[in-house]
Amino acid sequence: MEASSLVAERPTGGEQDPGHARCAFYLPRKRRSCGMAPKAGARFCAEHQPGDSGTAARVPCPLDPRHTVAKAQLRSHLARCNRTKQDQALRAEREHMPWYEAGVNSAARPAAAAADEATLQAAVMRAIPVLAQIAEAEFRAPLRVAVLSNAQVEHVRFPQLPSNRKHALQQSSLIQHLREAGLWVAPERPVAYVEFGCGRGELSRYINQAAVLEQLERGGPAAPPAFVLVDRACPRMKFDSKFAEDVAELHARFCPSVPPDERPAPAVTRKKIDIRDLRLAALLSPGLEHIAVSKHLCGVATDLTLRCLAAGPRASLCGALIAMCCRHACNPAEYANPAYVEALLARHAPDMSYDLFFLALMKMASWAVSGRRPGVPDTEVGGHFSGLAIAERERLGHLARRLVDEGRRQYFADLGYDAELLVYCERDTSREDIALLVRRPA
């Protein structure tokens, strides 16, 4: 959208004082004016000059269309664009990154052909009775409901959140599951937690807090775990520096007799890398056991993570706890266990292709989490192409999610691990309430 069409969205009276050298363009999404400096005598910066202002024509930058550049200066801009510098820096770093290998965790399966909406809807209608038949034959036992709570998280985290505790409740349950499953650090058992799709590193931060506080409450010295944080993005307000600050604060509160210079800080390593390209073995310290964790690892990222763990040093992999989400964002070509789905189809619908059935599963999986407007009854159809009431669509959505998740569970079971799907939080806390718990057999 051109600047001239957006200037009108600026609230009345929201123009900058002429004495302030800031662009007068209002950014509706950020609810503030642009912070760039305009040229002398101009009201807007070069990025937000109206198209009819008589200034040189501007075009989106080919490297990053989020910003524009004067058309006449495009060639010189490409040489100095920040995106060019970032790409060059990343390429230079990769030459010294033994943990990077392009596509190492991708599946060898060819990509599924794209389906138009009519084809996809027809596949869904065909898949509905197949899914119901599979669920009746294969998934009659409900998943174990285990909504747990960690005392240390409640002690430290909950007082900071007087109102919205949804994320804290999920973190508390996941952390307690790690403890009860034996996937926990101790002074005599150092481990490294690898958080996939870590974002700001929030889950790892509270694992660190809970582990250190538990050790201090027992009167023993604190031995924080190590952390490896993996994400392809570089979010703002990361928690990386908070790990050491939390350890120091907990010592000061609960064990002040330990001198500050003797309070161990956790080793925290962050890598900006796509899980698709991650060679995990090159990131881990030799001889140190590791545990994979993630909260709401989205769609295909879960499948890439499972393959990454399977290809990594399994001798040191104690287990994993992954809260999954967004099955509608999966990919039939990248799914971790296509053989599992193909075997189900061979028994229940041998004439249906894997790719089309999986695309239908993705579509139906979204029905479980799309939510309802307040007051919508279970019997509401609302013109949906399936002709099914909303309650029935939600039920089928949960069955589709279950099938996708069962294949992931079986993937690790086939590798010799104890693997379980469980409900780790209440549905009104999060609709994405299923976690995959993997443990090395005793």
Q: Could you explain how this protein is built, in words?
A:
The chain has 442 residues and is an alpha/beta fold. The chain has two domains: 3-55, no CATH class; 119-439, no CATH class. It is built from twelve helices and twelve strands. Helix 11 crosses helix 12. The longest helix has 24 residues, at 390-413. The termini are far apart. Residues 1-19 have low confidence and may be disordered. Belongs to the methyltransferase TRM13 family. Zn(2+) binds at residues 61, 67, 77, 81. Its EC number is 2.1.1.225.
| Number of helices in the DSSP assignment | 12
- Uncertain stretches: 1-19
Structural class by helix and strand composition: alpha/beta
Instruction: Estimate percent helicity.
Output: 25-40%
Portion in beta strands = 5-15%
Sheet having the most strands? 8 strands, mixed
Per DSSP E runs of 2 or more residues, the count of β-strands stands at 12
The gyration radius over C-alpha positions equals 26 Å
Strand order of the biggest β-sheet: 5-11-12-10-9-6-7-8
What's the mean pLDDT score? 89
Globular, elongated, flat, extended or rod-shaped: what is the shape? globular
Helix/strand order, N-terminal first? HEEEEHHHEHHEHEHEEHEHHHEE
Termini separation = 60 Å
Count of the separate structural domains: 2
Set out the fold topology.
Blueprint: H1 3-7, E1 26-27, E2 32-33, E3 58-60, E4 68-70, H2 74-80, H3 82-94, H4 117-138, E5 144-145, H5 151-156, H6 166-180, E6 191-196, H7 202-217, E7 226-231, H8 242-254, E8 268-272, E9 289-298, H9 300-311, E10 317-325, H10 338-348, H11 354-365, H12 390-413, E11 418-423, E12 434-439
Parallel strand pairs: 5-11, 6-7, 6-9, 7-8, 9-10
Antiparallel strand pairs: 1-2, 3-4, 10-12, 11-12
Helix pairs in contact: 4-11, 4-12, 7-8, 11-12
